[in-house]
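User: Show me a protein chain along with its predicted structure.
Assistant: Here is one chain, sequence first, then structure tokens.
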Amino acid sequence: MSTNQKTYRNEEVLSLLGEIYKIEASGINRYMHYSFMIMGYNRIPIQKWFRDNASESMAHSILIGEKITSLGGHPPLIANSVEESNLHTVQNLLEETLKFEEEAVLLYTKLSAMAADLGDIALEEMARTFVMEETEHVDEVRKMMRKPDSH
């Protein structure tokens, strides 16, 4: 691969990592907000679940930011905006969460494929781990959205 191709691919990877960083950073704000808006008798476990997701978004942001700087980039100072529907039922928040988590799966899957194409095993393994984690979140949210009687 020529130097120009490496530079172009590095810019492509940095751009995608920047997108991922912004979505993870927005996840911190999203999940903290959701945790504040949970009311009712199931508040404590659901609030904790959202705060745990905020902590995971923070951990992912840190790893992605470190990867960006190790590749010579600069992590964005902004996060993606979080749409505020003002609908704070658990069902509404889970629907928004599902959409958010599915978007993260797509971005990490794209990163995994890009890293494999570049032969960057470490980046590919990181992306694959995040694909697994985010897919588990999608599965968990879908289970949470089911009615107790449905199979």
